[in-house]
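Researcher: I'd like a structural prediction for the single chain below. Treat it as a standalone chain; there are no partners to consider.
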Amino acid sequence: MNGDQKALEQLTDAYTRITGELSKVIVGQKDVLEQLIIGLFSRGHCLLVGVPGLAKTLMIRTLASCLSLKFSRIQFTPDLMPSDITGTEVIQEDKATGRREFRFLPGPIFANIVLADEINRTPPKTQAALLEAMQEQQVTVGGQQHVLDPPFYVLATQNPIEQEGTYPLPEAQLDRFMLEILINYPDENEELDIVLRTTSDTEARVEPVLDARQVLEIQRLVRRVAIPEHVARYAVRLARWTRPSFEEAPQFIRDYVTWGAGPRAAQCLVMAGKARAALHGRAAVSVEDVEAVALPVLRHRLVLNFNAEADGIKSDDLIARLLRSVPRPEDELVNRGILPKLS
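Model: Treating it as a single chain, here is the predicted structure.
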């Protein structure tokens, strides 16, 4: 336990240094950067949604540089084939013997951090090849399995503006992403800072903070972070209350949701909560940690109906109401007379 506490202190220091290095290149976006790091240390994958020009690629490339990890970017297009990302087998001749044999040439997916740019612009067959690699940590080519080197972290982007001619990810595939991270426009001062930085002759130099071995150790450390049963129950309850067919579901969920989040949502709430607690040097998950990750964990797991579209209701609106509706564990203890009521 003492060893883990020391490791948590070192992680907090490393997190501060990582965000400091990222801030040399990225202006603002503090919550986005924290969620990206949470996704990595939780062994999850993330879906980034934002309009063009918000430095998504730069953000991810800089994160890879901070962690001394191999980075790869794949631009998804309608003509992209699965072998274009996984790799392919070629016939190679041995000059000494003249014998020909198949040799596997790895594709761009063989990296530690993979940016899948505009994943909804490629056909389902190619999307499925990427999602198989995300789930299985390996690819299959020519009947042979090729294991991907850990850590393996996929960040897929989607442009929310144009949807014509795209291939939206089905709900079952969206569920494979641990977090959906929304990247919004910067405020005026941040945008001014961006303009001044990017139009000058100076270039920020990012120093590595961690390496692949240390990232894997942190991923194992995150899994050892404790979660009290009442906090885990709260995470489960958040997921369950999103399902309109369940008895516990509030009326606004019944009115606006067709399908709610599955059990994987509760798992992701717990793992993301553990990562957030670890980043801040705490050895146990709190209710506040679960609440802080609820939006990115749940927003892509709710399937809204026509009533929601007609009333202009978004997933984030429903999740915010849900966080106000689901009883917090301490409130239940007050109601049962175990804790005193604070005036």
